[in-house]
Structures are given as C-alpha cells and as structure tokens.
From TrEMBL:
Active site positions: C112 (nucleophile), C211 (cysteine persulfide intermediate)
Species this protein is from: Streptomyces griseoaurantiacus M045
Name of this chain's protein: tRNA-specific 2-thiouridylase MnmA
SUPFAM superfamilies on file: Adenine nucleotide alpha hydrolases-like (SSF52402)
Keyword Nucleus: no
Reactions catalysed: S-sulfanyl-L-cysteinyl-[protein] + uridine(34) in tRNA + AH2 + ATP = 2-thiouridine(34) in tRNA + L-cysteinyl-[protein] + A + AMP + diphosphate + H(+)
Length: 376
C-alpha cells in the first residue's frame, strides 16, 4: 500500500512479519509510526532452527527470532513466534527437492512468498482479525481509482524485489503492506534509520542464498536427500565426455563444476544445455546453443485481471535479471512467450514475470523453451 491510498488513511491492524533482519524491522517500525496497530510475528520455519543459518546465511534461526523480538520491544509492539515449520517443509523444501529431481531449477523464495507469507500467514492473520501483512520487501502496491490494486516495482530499482512477489493475486495484494517500497534509499540509509530508531539489527549482515541450506552447498544438500546416482555427461552429438554423481546437481547454463576431462573441439568453454532425469544424462555444448527465442510457462498467476489476447510486455527471468521485450499470450491455460531478441540460459522451473512499465502483470513457471537457431 502507498501512503496516498484511502486504505492507509485509517489505522489498520497490521501483522508485521519480522525475519530478524534490518529490512523487516524498519518496515514494522514505519508501519507503527504511521499510526497502525502493529503486532510483530517471527515465523519458525524449521524443526531444528540451528541448522538454518551459518554466519550471514539464512534467516530462520533462534538467533533471528531473538533479534526480531528485541526489535519489536524497541518499536513497542507485541511479538509472537508462529510455528509454520511443517507447512514450510511441505510447500517449499520438498517442492525444491522435487523440482531439482525432475530436472528443473526452482526459486524457493518465490514459493515461500506464495505459499507461506501470503497464504498460510495471511490466512491466519485474516482469521485473527488483522487487515494486512507487512513485510520488508522492496515493492509497491498501488490502489487505483476504480478500487483495483496493482503491484509495482520499488521506487529504487537497485533493490526491487517485485520478481519474487509476482505470484501474488489481487486478494493477497489487498492485504499486503510494503513500507520500504516507495522510498528511494540505499541499504546504508536503511541501516542508518535502524540505528536512529535504536534497532540493534542495524549492523546485522544481510541474509543470502537459500535459507534452508545453511552452508550454501545446494548440490550437497540435494545429494543427501536424493542420493548419488552416477550418469553420463554428453555433448550435442551424444558422445560421452564425462560423468556426474547426479543430474539434479546441474542447472541450465551452468559452466563451472562440470569436471569434463575432454576439451571441446574448438577449445571454448561448454555449458549445460539439457538435463534428463529419466536417463540421468546431462548434455553440454557451446554458449550459443543456450539461446532461446520462446518459452512455454504453466500455472500462471495474475496480479489482478488476467490479460485477454496477445500482448507486448517486458519479462524478467531471474530475481536480479534484466528485463527483455516479449510478446505473450494465454493458449489453453499456458503462457506462450516469444522474445524480441533471443535470451540465454533459461531453465525450466524458473519463473517468468511479465511487466508493463513498472506494473507487475503476473508470473508463471517455465515448463519448456524453444532453442533459437544458432548461426553457423
């Protein structure tokens, strides 16, 4: 919500999701300062929270819970810890493992926003009489004159997080509050604000990587869950050029860690082009073979009314990726996207998020890609 919308002109009962980091603490403080009746909540997402963090990694530990509680005390708001570990395991962790097992590359942060923060948490908040869930995401919800809501990029593009929020529908947007999204401030200024407010998390390192993989070793995590399964690495002609210990340990576009003993004929680096979980085979080839000019995406979710007919948009394919011009159309429930200029390294399982200007139109999960014809 932005400060100029009618819904923010009256005090709301707001549930502030507090991860224990600086962004969510400042967001909660701003919501309280705006006159809302704010309650802080930390989500316990692991049955063994010590395992979810090492140094600056992750965001779901006992340490984080205590940091969130201290921040709530300074702000002067009630604070609770809600146990959503089982729901998180089923909807995020198990989904993550299953997607990699199927040869796809998922985005767990996007799934957490869809299934946990703006589904399980929001549903519980509404049942308890709260009006909105507040988070430290950098994005904006704008209320139009006709009463509809739109999700827009943050004012500061450098910190924009609208890509991982593209799964939110209009009902969820109606109860979402992002107090950091409509101000252009650097992270240093957010930390300075936290320090002025007396929040001890002002100097806390940012979390990064995947919160439930404490050491950042995704392949090691998957190996423990799925077991090692030796298979072949082949080139585009099908010739074996190496072996691997599990196709799930690779993603489309990967260059490092291939451990291919046989050099390419042209001496240039090779990249992962395809992953076949059925045959446990990984195909590698030149960078040019990564170019795709179209994709099909499934399970579309719209931030408002679904578009009708073909349209021209920009698309973002990664959380910190650049926008690219596309045309897109719903065909038999799937989103068909064609790129104006071929793009490289698009992996099934990733999300494609469509934009019109700064407005998020919607999101869908990439199911397949069409390889561009490489120049000879």
């Amino acid at each position: 919500m932005t400060d100029d919308t009618p819904q923010t002109r009256r005090p709301l009962r707001v549930l502030a999701a507090m991860s224990g980091g600086v962004d969510s603490a400042v967001a909660a403080a701003r919501a309280a300062e705006a006159g809302h009746d704010v309650t802080g909540v930390h989500l316990a997402l692991s049955a063994n929270p010590q395992s979810f963090r090492t140094g600056a990694r992750g965001c779901c530990t006992i340490e984080d819970s205590r940091d969130a509680r201290r921040a709530a005390d300074v702000i002067g708001i009630p604070f609770y810890v809600w146990d959503l570990a089982e729901r998180f395991r089923e909807d995020v962790v198990e989904d993550f493992v299953a997607e990699y097992e199927a040869g796809r590359t998922p985005n767990p942060c996007l799934r957490c926003n869809e299934k946990i923060k703006f589904a399980a948490l929001l549903d519980k908040a509404l049942a308890l009489g709260f009006d909105a869930v507040c988070t430290g995401h950098y994005a904006q919800v704008i209320l139009r004159e006709d009463g509809t809501r739109e999700l827009h990029r943050a004012s500061d593009m450098a910190k924009d997080q609208s890509y991982v929020l593209g799964v939110l529908d209009e009902r969820q947007l109606a109860h979402a509050m992002f107090p950091l999204g409509d101000t252009v401030t650097t992270k240093e200024e957010i930390r300075a604000e936290a320090e002025r407010r007396g929040l001890a998390v002002a100097k806390k390192p940012d979390s990064h990587d995947i919160c439930f993989i404490a050491d950042g070793d995704t392949q090691g995590f998957l190996s423990k869950r799925l077991g090692r399964a030796e298979g072949d690495i082949v080139d585009e002609s099908g010739t074996k050029v190496g072996t691997h210990e599990g196709a799930f340990g690779f993603t489309i576009g990967q260059r490092k860690g291939l451990r291919i003993g046989t050099p390419a004929a042209d001496g240039k680096p090779r990249y992962v082009l395809d992953i076949s979980p059925v045959t446990n085979t990984v195909t590698v080839g030149p960078a040019a073979a990564l170019d795709v000019d179209a994709l099909t995406a499934v399970k579309p979710r719209w931030c408002g009314t679904a578009p009708s007919g073909p349209g021209t948009y920009t698309a973002q394919l990664r959380a910190h990726g650049e926008e690219t011009e596309v045309s897109a159309e719903l065909v038999d429930g799937a989103l068909e996207v064609t790129f104006t200029t071929p793009v490289r390294g698009v992996a099934p399982g990733q999300a494609v998020v469509l934009y019109q200007g700064t407005r998020v139109v919607g999101s869908a999960t990439i199911a397949s890609t069409r390889r561009a014809v490489a120049a000879v």
